[in-house]
Amino acid sequence: MPKFIGSLLIFSCISLIIGCSPSKRSNSSDADRIGEVAVSIHYVGDDKYQNDLSSEELLTWKKAQQQAILEQDQGQMAYDLFSHHGGGPLGAEWNSDADLWLALRYPSQGEYSPKILLNGEEQKISPDYLLTDSIAVASFTLPATVWIPLLKPISKEEYTSIYSQEAIKSQQSSPNGQLGIGKILHVESIFTPSRNGKNSLSLAFHIAFGE
Amino acid sequence: MQEAKQPASLAGAEQSEQEGQMGRSAAPPAFGFADDVMQRQEAPDTGGGAGVAAGAGAAAGGAVAAGAAEKVSSGGGDLKGKIDAALGAKASETDPPNKLVKANDNVSNKVNDDIKGELASVVSTVSDLTGIDIGTGFGDTSRRLAGTTSKDGADNFSWHKTGRAIDFNQGLKWVIMKNPDGGDMFFRLYLKANQQGPGEGEKAPAEGAEWKHPSGHAKKFNKKADAGNVHHNGAGSSLYSKWFIDVTSILTSQGFERIPAHKGWEKSYNRREWWHYVKDDGLTWYKALRQIYSEADLVKGIKSFATRRHQDAGRLSREGFPDTTLQAIWDKTEITKNGFPLYFSVGSHRDCANIMSDIAGVRMGLNELGIPLQSTEEMIVAFQKKEKFGTADGYITVGGTTHKRIGQRLQEKRAKK
C-alpha cells in the first residue's frame, strides 16, 4: 500500500523516509517552488541478477528509463526498489547482486549538482543527465561492489524507515517475526545547492539474502 | 538419482555447508568399481544418448576390470586415453529441450517451462481458496547459472539455477507451523481461507453442528493441539477461530517439495527455508540444468564458480555430472604428481569425483605396486598402510600426499626395470 511519510522543506535539511511506489515525489505546498521532485532506484536492466545484457542494451534501457521518469510514465518505469514490495521478509528485496540505478527528477533551473550518499558516505559517481527546459533527470549507476559492502544491519530505530506501523505492530508480537531481518542501505539524494541549507531526499533500501 | 532430503551439517566443511544450505544433496556415488563405472556413465544429454554412454562405460569397465594389471605394465596411459576418447565422443550437442519463461503474465520472474503449468495450477487453487495471489512477489525463481554467493543460507549449487525452485513471497500473512519429520525440521504453510461459512445455496449445518470447510486442504487449528507447533502466526487472533488453507499440501500435490530447515534454524532466519519449494521431478541437478542449457553453456557457467577439484568436482559428481562434463569444466587437464596423472580425487570420501578414468589409473597403478585387485577403497587403504601413513583413510586427494606417493613408487619401480 502506498504510503508517504515526511515532507519536503526547501530551506532546511530534510530527510524523507518514503515507501511509496513507483517513485517518490514531494507533495508539500513548497513543491510548487521547485517543481516536481522524484527519486527512484532500480536494478540495472530491471533485473536483480543482471543477466547477460550487452552494454548497448543497457544504454538503451537507461535512456528509456530516463525518458519514462522525465515523463512520469508509470507504465514504462521499472520496478522501484524503494517501494518495498520485494519477496523477502516483510517486503525486503531478496538475493540481488546487481548494480543499482538511481534516478533523480527535479527542476532544471538554477545551480544543481546532485550528489548521492549511501549510508552517509558520499559517492564519487558522475551522473548522466537528461535535460529539458524545466526538468532534469540525473541518473547514477551504483555498482554492486559499492553498495553491497555498505549494507548494514537494521536497528530498531530504523524500522519506521522500511516498515509500516501495521507491520511493526503485528510482527512485534511474534517471536519468529521478520522485523529487522536483512540489511539496510540509506540512500540520500542531495539535489539542490546548499546555500540555504541542504535539500535532500533520504530513502531506505532493504534487502535480505538466503536460499 | 533420487536426492537425499537430509540436510548436511552447517558446522562442517565448507562444501558440506553449501550442500546443507541447498538441502538437496545427492547420495555419495557407489564405490564398487564395476558398479561405479556403470552407474556413473549416464548420458550427459537429457535424452537419447544413453546407448552410447552405456556402451562406452561397459566396454571400458570390462576391459579395466578384466585385465587392469597387465594393461598397466603394457601402457596404462593408452587405455586411459582410449577411455577418455570414447567418453568424449558421446557428449551431446543437442539443444536443451526446455527454456526459462515468465512464471506468469504478472511477473518478470522466470521458471523452467516444464513446471510452469503446475505452478499456475497451485497459484490458481490457492487464489480460489484464500483470495491471495502467491504467484506474484516471488523472492526468487530462477538465478543465473554463473552466479556465486557467499551469503549464509545460500548455495552456488542452487536448484534456483534450474528454474525449478521457487521462493514464495515471505511478506504474506502466513501461518507457519512446525512440522518435524525424523530429525529434520520442516514447516507447513497456511493462509486464511476466504470461505468461513456455508456458501450461497449451501445448506447451513444443523443447530449445534459446526460448519466444515469443503476443501480437503482446509484446516481449523486447535489451540490445545496446535499451539506448540506455531512458528509464526500471521493471522493474529483469528488463528483458532477461522479456517485456514494448507498451502503446502496444495504445493506437494503438484510435485513441489519442501526442503528441511538447516541446522541452526532456531537462531538464524535464513536457515529456515519455509519459503523455498523445489519441483525436481526426480531429475538430478545436472539433468535439470541440461533441460535449459546446452552442454557448452553449462560447462561455461559451472566453470565460473566450481574451481576446486577435490570438493567442487565431488559435489558435481554427486549431483549427477558425467565424467566428460567434469573433465570439460576443468579444461580436460590432469594434475600430474611424480608422473602419475589424476583429474580429481579418488576414493571413499564424499568430495571425491571418482571418474572412471581416474579409478582405472589408480587401480592399475596400485596393482602394479603389488596391491591385489579388490575394491578401490580397499586398495587405497592397503597402499596407505603399506606406506605407513598415519591415517589410512581410503581416498586420494588429487595433488595430495597419497597421489604424490603413488607416483613416486611407480617411478621407482619402473626405474628398476
Summarize the structure.
Chain A is α+β, with helices and mostly antiparallel strands and 211 residues long. Chain A has 5 helices and 13 strands. In chain A, 18% of the residues lie in helices and 28% in strands.
Radius of gyration of chain B over alpha carbons?
26 Å
The overall strand count of chain A is 13
Task: Walk across the major sheet of chain B and give the strand order.
Answer: 6-8-5-4-7
Give the mean pLDDT of chain A.
80
Q: Report the biggest beta sheet of chain A as strand number plus sense, adding barrel if it closes.
A: 6 strands, mixed
List low-pLDDT spans of chain A: 1-23, 25-34
Helix and strand composition category of chain A: alpha+beta
The helix/strand class of chain B is: alpha+beta
Main sheet: strands, sense, barrel of chain B: 5 strands, antiparallel
Helix content of chain A: 10-25%
Strand content of chain B: 5-15%
Treating each run of at least 4 consecutive H or I residues as one helix, how many helices of chain A?
5
- The helix-strand sequence of chain B is HHHHEEHEEEEHEEHEEHHHHEEEHHEH
Oligomer: heterodimer
- Whole-number radius of gyration of chain A? 17 Å
Q: Figure out the total of helices of chain B.
A: 14
Can you characterise this structure?
The complex is a heterodimer of chains A (211) and B (417). With 211 residues, chain A is of the alpha+beta class. Chain A is 18% helix and 28% strand. In chain A, strands 5, 7, 8, 11, 12 and 13 form a 6-stranded mixed beta sheet that branches. A 5-stranded antiparallel beta sheet of chain A has the order 3-4-6-10-9. In chain A, a hairpin with a 2-residue loop joins strand 7 and strand 8 (121-123). Residues 1-23 and 25-34 of chain A have low confidence and may be disordered. With 417 residues, chain B is of the alpha+beta class. Chain B is 36% helix and 11% strand. Chain B has a 5-stranded antiparallel beta sheet with strand order 6-8-5-4-7. In chain B, helix 2 runs antiparallel to helix 3 (50-73) and helix 3 (50-73) packs antiparallel against helix 4. The longest helix of chain B has 24 residues, at 50-73. Residues 1-77 of chain B have low confidence and may be disordered. Classes of the chains: A alpha+beta (211), B alpha+beta (417). The interface between A and B is medium-sized, with 28 and 34 residues.
